[in-house]
Amino acid sequence: MKKLFILMLAGAMVLAITMPASAAVEHIFGGYWRVRAFTQNSFSGEDALETQNLTRTDTRTRLYYTAKFSDKFSFVNKFEFDAVFGTGGSQYGDVGADGIAVEVKNSYADFTIGSIRTTLGVQGYTIARGFVFDDDFSGAVVRWNADWGTFPFIWIKLNEGGTGLNMNDFDVDGFGVNPTFKISDAITLNPFLMWWYSDDASGLANAAGAGVTANDLSTYHIGVNAEIKADPFSIWLTGIYQGGDFDLVGGASQDVSAYLLAGGAKTKIGPFGIHGEAFYASGDDDATDGDNDAFFVPLANRGGGVGQSYYWAEIMGYGVFDNQLSNGTPGNQVTDIVAGNIGFTYKLMENLDFRGDLWSASLAQDNAAGDSYLGTELDGKLVYKIMDNLNLDLVAAYLFAGEATEQEPDAANPWELGARISLSF
Question: Residue 361 in contact with residue 316, Cβ under 8 Å?
Answer without folding.
Answer: yes
